[in-house]
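Example 279, ligand heme C.
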Amino acid sequence: MTRLSAIATAVLLLAALPLRAGEIPDKAFSSEADPSSRQDNASSKTLEHRSGTTFMSPDTKAIQDDDTANPGMLWALDGEELWKKKDGANEKACADCHGDARESMKGVAARYPAFDRELGRPVDLVQRVNLCRARHQQTSPLAYESREMLALTAFIAQQSRGMPITAGRDEELAPFVAKGHDLFHERQGQLNLSCANCHDDNWDKHLAGSAITQAHPTGYPLYRLEWQSLGSLQRRLRGCIFGVRAQPYEFGAPELVDLELYLMTRAAGMPLESPAVRP
Ligand code: HEC
Ligand code: HEC
């Protein structure tokens, strides 16, 4: 993206994003990096692999780093209770089959989305939990952003904290990783921007006061100060799609799962940080 078109785009975006007065910067895109680094091409820039955490202010980072201050921990604690709660027609709790999550769920979130043989496609952690609810508990699915689902997925993801992302290694996933890759690079919406235009080409810049990060999915589900809540990766992706004025896919849509899967392979080896905190 040329500098001029970036600015034109950002001006359009400013109109699209809900901003409080005083947050609108003079220049929508501003680079804090040393000017020489702008010569870098996109691929060499992305090799640096920086988590969204490294773009945050020290204040926000302090909230994330302190478990007693991190609001996401409240969801994880609720999740631990739900893990032990009997539910469904056969009165089974997650714990009745999976035992202590600290053992059985270790590393699980780091390799999702994973391939489900019966469905013949990848499912993310939310869908995996709902498969257990349907197949093993004989009960109804939980909605993506419901308190219970966020709590269960936060508790499960917490068991992989600090573990490297390994998702996407199963060879049956290859076509879905490829689809996610294409979606990431496809221009869309009235602003005609791809994810890569911002997150590969402009991650060292700011947009309307927000750092444009490299879009690594290391922290999800995470607590966003702007949401005043925990939220899933799909909620975040829908927000970015809405930001370029495209019609976001429904929660659970195959396109969003393919994007999640691609983002996880793109972040391979990075440590999971859930429940993280973001501005
Ligand atoms: C116009 C620029 C722009 C485009 C295009 C864009 N994003 Fe973003 N994205 C942002 C900004 C800015 C943030 C962080 C600030 C915020 O949260 O509002 C962000 C945040 C994210 C995050 C959160 C990372 C973290 O550390 O929590 C992910 C993941 C993400 N975007 C993925 C995507 C995907 C996938 C697409 C394409 C469907 C996309 N983005 C398109 C600007 C963009
Ligand atoms: C009656 C036993 C049973 C119950 C109850 C159950 N599960 Fe499962 N779960 C399984 C089995 C068996 C698998 C392996 C995949 C399959 O056969 O569906 C599994 C797989 C999983 C996985 C994927 C693990 C991996 O390594 O990929 C997760 C995550 C999970 N369950 C979470 C839950 C949660 C959360 C609950 C409670 C809401 C729950 N399960 C309830 C039996 C159960």
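Summary: Confidence is low (pLDDT under 50) at residues 14-44.
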